[in-house]
Structure formats: C-alpha cells, structure tokens
Design goal:
Layout lengths: L1 E5 L4 H10 L4 E5 L9 E5 L1 H5 L8 E4 L13 H21 L4 E5 L25 H16 L9 E7 L2 E2 L6 H10 L16 E2 H13 L5 E5 L7 H12 L10 H14 L5 H8 L7 H7 L8 H12 L4
Parallel strand pairs: 1-2, 1-4, 2-3, 4-5, 5-6, 6-9, 7-8
C-alpha cells in the first residue's frame, strides 16, 4: 500500500518508517524534505494544497505542535497547527481515494488529570490548556465531518496515546534520567502514584494492525499494559545505570510545604510540578486490544522503558 505520513521526520514518524517501510511504500508530508531511508519521497504542504501527491491508501497524520511543558508557547499557535493542519489533511483524505485515516491526538485531549481510577474512551473530554484544547478541536472537526459510528468505504481512527517514549525521543524522561544519573536521591518516595506510558514499539505494532486489518472506526486510547509508579521508574533508571536506587521517603507534608515555598521563590520544585510528578494518570488500552484481537501488547511497560533508558546512556 501507499502510506502518507505527515510529520514524518519527527520521533514517531521516524519509527513508523522503520515499522512500515519494509511492507509498504511510505511517503512523507513535512515542512522539510531531506532524503530519508525507507521513504519514497517527502512532499511539502503546497504539494498537498495543489494536489500533487500520488494516490494514497492510508493517511497517518502526526504533524502537530507538541506540548510545551515550559508554557512559553502562544495559545493560538497550538490551534493554528494542531487544529488547522488537521483540517487540511482530513479534507484531503475525504476527497482522496485513501481508505484509512489515522489521527494522532493525545490523552490530554480527553483529560488533564484522570477522573476516577482509569481513563477510558467513555470519558467526557475536559482538556485544560491550549495543547489539549487544540487536539480536541481537531477531533471535533473530524467527527463533525465523518460518522465514526456509521458504515463507510473509509475508516477513521482517532488515537489518543499517553506519553510516548523510545530511543531518539526528547522530553521529560530524558531530563529525569539526567538527574538520576548524577546520583541525586529521589525525595518523593512517600508519594505512591501510578502512570501509564506508551512504548514506541507497542505504538508501531498498533499502527501496523490498523493499517493491515479492518478495525472499526473510532476513538482509541493507547498505552502499555502496566502502569508504572514514579518510584518504580526511578528504580528502572538506576537498573539501566547499573546502580542502586536512592529513594527518600520524606514526609509528604514537608515536600508539599517545600513546593509551596518553591512557587513563591521561583524554584524548580513548585506545587504544580509536584502534582505532575506524583499524580495518578492510568490509561486503559482495553478497547484497542479488543479491536486488534490481542490479550497483551508485545512489549511490557518495564521492557519498553529499559529499551528507552539504555539508549540514553551515550548522551549522559
């Protein structure tokens, strides 16, 4: 099949090229167009607007503005890119002969924090901030122009992954790994939380299943099978580094007081960051596994994290 991947030169796009390129003809759509192993050709956005693309069978829309954890990006930029580009690509898909469209949304489009024990597709979306709000706006546009519950000669998937990681990615995992690699003790051992992650290998497995199979259209959450506590994550990082984990179980009230003071003094640890580091965010992957007819993802959460963390060693 001919597969078009927008944002193909990013972290996820590069991994999808490796996963799909051996069996399919992969094309890219991006703001840059260098040659890339496994990619037939990368087109630019003007090529899309002027209908200069060959006939595609599958469109995977990855291109978007990532969540800015430093909160330095203007809100409108998220909507211009995450909603605006999605409209362009989805309109192209609807007019084209392509049979499948996969949109990479985010769990942040559903909820900034998880109501209850686990986040499922039945949640009423309540995003907080321009990143999640722009993603849900893009989802709404897709659903306003395509009936996910109806029958059609086209299939549309809205995928909501939680934090994606793997060799080559950049983000909070890298930053935390650098801290742990310096031997700095983890002071938040008293907070026993659970969080879901998404190994890029599991993600590529799911995308391959959506491309090859006849999975019903719909919204699907994506995450590894097992949630991991931050304390467990620190332990896996230390295992990767070949050292013993140093986790301090300091009183929760003490750390909350320090975080409150940090907000006043503009220190690295403030109440908002403490909450993000210690909150529960467990995502259900039951629906996508049921649709693919599998009981478990191919890579466990711990295995996936070790693969990612071991790739960081050279950069520490």
């Amino acid at each position: 099949m001919n597969i078009l991947i927008t944002g193909i030169h990013g972290f996820v796009g590069s991994n999808l090229v490796k996963a799909l390129g051996a069996k399919h003809a992969v094309y890219g759509l991006d703001i840059v167009a260098p040659s890339k192993a496994g990619v037939v050709k990368t087109f630019n956005w003007k090529d899309l607007e002027e209908n200069r693309l060959p006939v595609m069978d599958v469109v995977i829309h990855l291109a978007g503005k990532a969540h800015d954890t430093k909160n330095q990006s203007l809100a409108q930029a998220y909507f211009d890119i995450n909603e605006g580009l999605t409209k362009k690509v989805f309109n192209y898909f609807l007019k084209s002969k392509a049979g499948k469209f996969i949109f990479f949304s985010s769990v942040k489009a559903a909820a900034d924090s998880v109501p209850g024990d686990i986040l499922t597709e039945e949640v009423v979306p309540a995003p907080v901030g321009p990143y999640g709000e722009s993603k849900i706006a893009a989802e709404d546009y897709i659903q306003d122009n395509f009936d996910l519950e109806g029958t059609d000669d086209k299939l549309v998937y809205i995928l909501r992954p939680c934090m994606i990681h793997g060799p080559g990615n950049k983000g909070n995992l890298n930053l935390l790994y650098k801290v742990v690699s310096k031997g700095i003790p983890w002071p938040l051992g008293a907070f026993d939380n659970r969080r879901s992650f998404t190994s890029v290998d599991n993600l590529c497995f799911v995308i391959d299943g959506l491309v090859a199979g006849m999975v019903p259209s719909g919204i699907y959450h994506m995450g590894d099978d097992e949630p991991i506590s931050t304390n467990e994550l620190i332990g896996v990082m230390c295992e990767s580094l070949g050292r013993k984990a140093h986790i301090w179980n300091l009183p929760r009230e003490l750390m909350q007081g320090i975080a409150s003071l940090g907000g006043v003094l503009q220190l690295p640890l403030n109440s908002q960051r403490l909450n993000k580091l210690t909150e529960n965010y467990v995502v259900s992957n039951a629906k996508i596994k049921g649709a693919l007819g599998i009981d478990r993802m191919p890579v466990s959460a711990r295995e996936g994290l070790l693969i990612t963390l071991n790739s960081f060693k050279e950069k520490v």
